[in-house]
Amino acid sequence: MNAPTRADTTWSVVEDGWNPERANYFETIFTVGNGRLGTRGSLEERHTGALPGTFVAGVYDAYDSPVIDLVNAPDWLDTEVFFDGVRLDTESARVVEHRRELDLRCGVLHRETVFEVPDGARVRVRTERFASTADRDLCCLRIEVSCLDRAGSVTVRTGVDGHRRNLERLPTYREATAFGYERKWDKWARSTHLVSAGSGFVDGVGVLSSRTIDSGIELAYALACTAEGGRRRQRSRHDAVEVEWGFQAGVGETVRVDKLVGIATSRDYRALDPPRERAVDTVVRAGGFDAAAAANRAAWERVWAEADCEVVGNDRVTQALRFAIYHLIIAADPDDPTVSIGAKSLSGEGYRGHVFWDTEVMLLPFFLFTQPRAARALLGYRHHTLPGAREVAADNGTGGARYAWESADTGREECPQYTPDGKDRFYTREEELHVTADVAYAIMRYASVTGDEDYLFGEGAEILFETARFWVGRCEPDGDSLVIRTVMGPDEFHSHVDNNAFTNKLVHWHLHQAAEVYARLARERPERLRELADSIGLEDGEPGQWLATADRLRAPTDPDCGVIEQFDGYFEREVVPIVEWDDNDMPLYPAGYNHFNCETTSLLKQPDVVMLMHLLPDEYSVATRRENYEFYEQRTVHKSSLSPSIHAIVGLQVGDSRTAERYFGRSAFVDLDDNQGNTEEGIHIASAAGTWQVATHGFGGFRASADGLHFAPALPPSWERLRFSVHWRGRTVRADLGHRDARFELIGAGPAEQIEVWGSPVTLEPGTPVEVEAP
After folding, report:
1. Do the strands 254-265 and 309-312 form a parallel or antiparallel pair, or are they unpaired?
2. What is the pLDDT of residues 273-284, one digit of tens each?
3. What domains appear along the chain, each with residue ranges and CATH number?
4. What region does 404 belong to: left with phi over 0, alpha with psi -120 to 50, or beta?
5. DSSP secondary structure string, 505-548?
6. What residues are labeled active site?
7. Boundaries of each Glycoside hydrolase family 65 central catalytic domain copy (predicted)?
């Protein structure tokens, strides 16, 4: 069992020593996954206060929970090791040494712990685990136990445990009540989503079937367990299967158990065979642990060749970037267009696994420029859930389709009405409408970057047209104008507002884009347009109605619009200055304020008008963007993890680099340093994507528009070079950017590609590196 070299810190994350108070943090950090599933980095044998979890994309249930949950699925890691009858865990034996290392290069978590039993004998336990990227149905665990001081009996019991529960709404405890790590999760209620559907062994392979109670999804796990020597016993109960190996081990001797687990569900995309058969076939065809590990390494090597982002001269930043990219990669399944990425990816129960606008505005750019197949799959989810979006619109009294603020498997609204403790009311489900325009924005960005007109004129057009219909019904007359009342913009401190600038402008843009796509279809693919119009009942006059609505809608438009009022009456809100900052130099709430009592103030939770400048930079002059950035930046308390990255990017674009590194650090290390104190609940996946965007779009000055790729690097002084790759219409451009020079290479057959570097045109021929000097 070979752990990665300890010298290259840019490719690994390490836990050195055992601290139970930090264990939940590392459970999140050490999540292994492959886009289809994610498994938290809990110890195989667990510990008091553990919060383990395996989450399978798309497996939701709402049997006894207020809104639907991403199900905490059966646990494939479940393992115990005994030495002469003593259980080797952090409480039954003394931990002498403990080290874990997540190898970002191949998604493998290595563990080495030395335990001391009561008579002083030491035993070393090593494990290696991964969720295969080569076969997304396969998970693998290797266990090695070494007797360091004396001979003894070693027992390894490992299996699949189907007795799993989700966390549920906790009671309201007295103010300032706190519970230690040992009990804090015990104080939550639980939701039950799984029932056993059979277990047993066939030809030595254990099979456990479970079923979600409300949604009726079958989950099948197949367990293949092998070892050299030893005595094997296999057992099953209604909700578990397990294999136990018994060994007599001499001094210095190591025993090894390999475990392969195949996972299949009845909702798997385009799967025909029953889940039990597919799960068994997965472990049979894997060819053993070593073969599976080799295939996994090869798959990761191909992914990193396209996705890596490196800062020469700053290893800590490179580590943060690779850590972010790793978690992005294991969050997306390019083979399944029926699932998307929740706000905590597949690394925890935070936000119940629900999908937000984060996917379209924060996550999609990374996949669009590094993993376009995954980007296409993420957009596929929005088409898959379009029927649910139609239901949401109908429930709110309009036609067309309105995307839910929080969605899951169906596209219907899944946003809770109250905070987990039941104390405070959320209005996001009723009022945060901009997600519908954000989806349209993502569709047009994907089509522009990839040139995939089959998608644009197919699923993309259907979404654009149906959502445009929603906006026509949602806008209200106000004299000669149209307005959008009672909404909430990205800044969630302010609800029930009228004419949120971000929402109105995105709607204005959305309606024009929908009309343009309709016109292109009429010119270029009239037969496709007829088919689509017939299927959704689209009338000839509707595109004209979209344009007329856009033209009457109050929306901030350059030139010379100055500081844009975030919503009607914002300028009259009480100005509450930010006067304190935390240890990360980020704003603290002014005394007496919190998330739920900022309505009457000018304080912002996160970028709103500044986010508009980020998404539509070509709609506003640099002067307008700078004026708005300077005005709103000093009013933003950054209580969303996606906030710092957007401020870093826009600040750099308008020439204000004074805060860019600080904001970048807040985004890049939000989970590595747990600088918000809640990483234990799951990865801030939008922040991970924002980190990549700051590096590439901010410091790298990278921008893609209809006329091609643009680079204008402005690196921080501590960075020597920035290296990354971007996909552009079927080919890859590799960029190696310095302070005074930049190097590029076009990979892929075809004609030359024209790019712009520091404002000057540069021609790239396939396979021929080009170096450019800064002006």
Report:
1. unpaired
2. 999 999 999 999
3. 9-306 (2.70.98.40), 324-699 (1.50.10.10)
4. beta
5. HHHHHHHHHHHHHHHHHHHH-HHHHHHHHHHHT--TTHHHHHHH
6. 492
7. 322-693
